[in-house]
Design goal:
PIN_com-containing_halobact; PIN domain-containing protein; plasmid; mainly alpha; globular; 5 strands; Rossmann fold; 201 residues; three-stranded parallel β-sheet
Length: 201
């Protein structure tokens, strides 16, 4: 983790960290893209590691939660990795605590944030309302947008981008119509020659 008082302008939730940490592009993201999460999301990552087994069947949800969380936590502990955490005050509780901690951060420190990244539709709506209430220009996007940042900065090819997006959607089970549509929102790249139609908007 970079210095404790460093804030990067891309705020990410627990599910985003897990999904991207399980991807083939994680090392490139942690080398080139500065991310910030919250102490609440870090606690959720720790809980996932404690509540799932290393021996879970490869590819299963418990397996993804365990190894994705562990990979993200390792990055948070590494001083060389541009991944930091901020402390949520007051500390939210409950099933949506991680998302609520992002919303709180948007309300309390909007000037430090350019993007908020999360997959949950209700969470995105809630954060967009918070942004609109402040007349802010923070963009609320889904996890594949982090791959788009790599592509837009010429750090990966279009094929690598498309394949990583398809793999992420498949692996996380985000293959329903609404999830796929949301995943591609704000990404101006045509992957129709690379990916199956059901993974495209």
């Amino acid at each position: 983790m970079a210095s404790a008082d460093t804030r990067y302008p891309i705020l990410v939730d627990t599910d985003t960290l897990i999904a991207v940490a399980n991807s083939s592009l994680w090392t490139r993201i942690t080398s080139h893209v500065g991310l910030t999460t919250t102490n609440v999301c870090k606690q959720e990552l720790n809980r996932h590691v404690e509540n799932t087994r290393e021996t879970a069947p490869e590819g299963s949800r418990p397996y993804r939660l365990h190894y994705g969380s562990r990979t993200a936590l390792d990055a948070l502990e590494d001083d060389e990795t541009p991944l930091t955490q901020v402390t949520s005050v007051p500390r939210p509780h409950g099933a949506d605590a991680g998302e609520e901690s992002l919303r709180q951060e948007v309300v309390q420190n909007p000037e430090t944030i350019d993007y908020v990244v999360l997959m949950d539709a209700a969470g995105r709506r809630s954060i967009r309302r918070a942004v609109d209430d402040q007349d802010g220009d923070i963009r609320v996007v889904t996890p594949p947008f982090l791959f788009y940042i790599l592509y837009d900065n010429e750090l990966i090819s279009r094929r690598e981008f498309c394949e990583a997006c398809g793999e992420l959607l498949e692996r996380e089970g985000w293959t329903g119509y609404s999830a796929v549509k949301a995943a591609w929102e704000g990404i101006p790249i045509d992957c129709s020659d690379i990916l199956d139609d059901r993974l495209l908007p």
